[in-house]
């Protein structure tokens, strides 16, 4: 689950508005980024309240892990994040970042 503030949401919308309004790519992105988005709610103690369909999608049952990533933060099921982080470490070790930084395909 990725969460962001209104400013990032507006920036994503501006980029989408620059795309061909009839393209399947724009339609797919708008569906995923805006059609599937929800405004985060907080309970009386300041805890994040996520809708059940997002919890089910992320496989979150008892525990969740919050991961900051610059302009966004992500909410993960801890085991899924461990696997994701391991894959990211392996990509970095394999030179993915050095190739990507030089315009190479990853």
- Low-confidence residue ranges: none
Class from helix and strand fractions: alpha+beta
**Shape, please?**
globular
Q: Order of strands in the sheet with the most strands?
A: 1-5-4
Number of strands: 5
Descriptive overview:
A hairpin with a 5-residue loop joins β2 and β3. The protein has five helices and five strands. The chain is 50% helix and 16% strand. It has a three-stranded antiparallel sheet. It has a two-stranded antiparallel ribbon with strand order 2-3. It starts with a strand and ends in a 5-residue tail after the last helix. The protein is globular and about 40 Å long. The model has no long low-confidence stretch (mean pLDDT 90). With 106 residues, it is of the alpha+beta class.
Topology diagram in text:
Layout: E1 2-4, H1 6-17, H2 24-35, E2 41-42, E3 48-49, H3 52-58, E4 65-69, E5 72-76, H4 78-93, H5 96-101
Antiparallel strand pairs: 1-5, 2-3, 4-5
């Amino acid at each position: 689950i990725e969460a962001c503030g209104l400013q990032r949401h507006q920036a994503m919308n501006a980029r989408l508005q620059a795309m061909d309004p009839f393209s399947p790519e724009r339609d797919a992105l708008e569906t995923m980024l805006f059609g599937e988005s929800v405004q985060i709610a907080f309970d009386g103690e300041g805890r994040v309240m996520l809708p059940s369909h997002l919890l089910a999608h992320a496989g979150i049952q008892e525990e969740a892990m919050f991961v900051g990533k610059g302009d966004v933060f992500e909410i993960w099921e801890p085991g899924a994040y461990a696997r994701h982080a391991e894959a990211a470490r392996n990509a970095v070790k394999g030179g993915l970042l050095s190739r990507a930084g030089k315009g190479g395909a990853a």
